[in-house]
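Design request, C-alpha cells follow.
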C-alpha cells in the first residue's frame, strides 16, 4: 500500500499561505489581526479586495473606545449587513468568553502578553493600558499611529481615556517595527514627560514597554521611570 507523503511547509511558504490555510496548519494564534478579519469577512467585492476591507475594519476597531455596532461597520465599503453582523457577533462572543478585563498586571511580561499580537504592525503605534487600583486591566487603546519609525504622542491624548475609565494607574507601550528594542532619545523624553503628567494627575505610569516580534523592553525593569 502506498504511503501518502506529508507535505512540509517552510517559513517562506507559510507567509504565502492564505489565512484559512495558515490557520488550518499552524493554528489561529499565528495570524495577525488583519488575517483574522479576512477569515471573518470571507471575500472581497468588485474593485474592493478583502485585504482593503479588513484594513479599514481594523482601523475602525483600533480607534473605537467601545464595541462597534453593525451600523458603524456597514459604513465601510464592502462590509454590508451580513458581514458587519458576523464581525460584531464574533467580537461579542470573544468579549464574553475570553475577556482580558480584570487580568492583573504583575510583571512587564503581562503587558507584553496583552500586546504581542500587534507586534507585526508596519508603523509605530502607541498604546495606553488603563488599570484599576488592584492593577487589573480595564482597557487597552491605541492612542496614535505614526511613521515606520516614529509616532507622536501628547499627554492630553494619553490620559484622556484613562481619566474616563477612572483608572488608578496606566502602562504605556509602543511597537518598534524594526525589531530593535532599544529606546531612542525621543522614547526616553516622551516617557519622562508622561510620567510627570501622570504624577500631576494622580494616575502614575507604572511602566513603558517597547515591543516587537523579538520580545520587549521594560523601562521599569531598567530603572528608567524616575
Amino acid at each position: 500500500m502506498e504511503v501518502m507523503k506529508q507535505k512540509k511547509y517552510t517559513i517562506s511558504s507559510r507567509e504565502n499561505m492564505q489565512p484559512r490555510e495558515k490557520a488550518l496548519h499552524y493554528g489561529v494564534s499565528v495570524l495577525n489581526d488583519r488575517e483574522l478579519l479576512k477569515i471573518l469577512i470571507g471575500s472581497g467585492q468588485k474593485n474592493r479586495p478583502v485585504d482593503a476591507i479588513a484594513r479599514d475594519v481594523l482601523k475602525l476597531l483600533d480607534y473605537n473606545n467601545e464595541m462597534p455596532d453593525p451600523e458603524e461597520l456597514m459604513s465601510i465599503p464592502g462590509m454590508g449587513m451580513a458581514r458587519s453582523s458576523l464581525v460584531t457577533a464574533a467580537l461579542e462572543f470573544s468579549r464574553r468568553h475570553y475577556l482580558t478585563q480584570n487580568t492583573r498586571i504583575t510583571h512587564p511580561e503581562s503587558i507584553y502578553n496583552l500586546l504581542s499580537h500587534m507586534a507585526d504592525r508596519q508603523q509605530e503605534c502607541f498604546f495606553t493600558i488603563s488599570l484599576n487600583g488592584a492593577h487589573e486591566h480595564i482597557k487597552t487603546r491605541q492612542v496614535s499611529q505614526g511613521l515606520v519609525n516614529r509616532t507622536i504622542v501628547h499627554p492630553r491624548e494619553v490620559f484622556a481615556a484613562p481619566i474616563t475609565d477612572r483608572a488608578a494607574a496606566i502602562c504605556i507601550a509602543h511597537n518598534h517595527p524594526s525589531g530593535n528594542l532599544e529606546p531612542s532619545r525621543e522614547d526616553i523624553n516622551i516617557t519622562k514627560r508622561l510620567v510627570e503628567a501622570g504624577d500631576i494627575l494622580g494616575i502614575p505610569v507604572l511602566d513603558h514597554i517597547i515591543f516587537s516580534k523579538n520580545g520587549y523592553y521594560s523601562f521599569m525593569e531598567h530603572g528608567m521611570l524616575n
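Comment from the thread starter after seeing the answer: thanks! The first strand starts at residue 125 and ends at 131.
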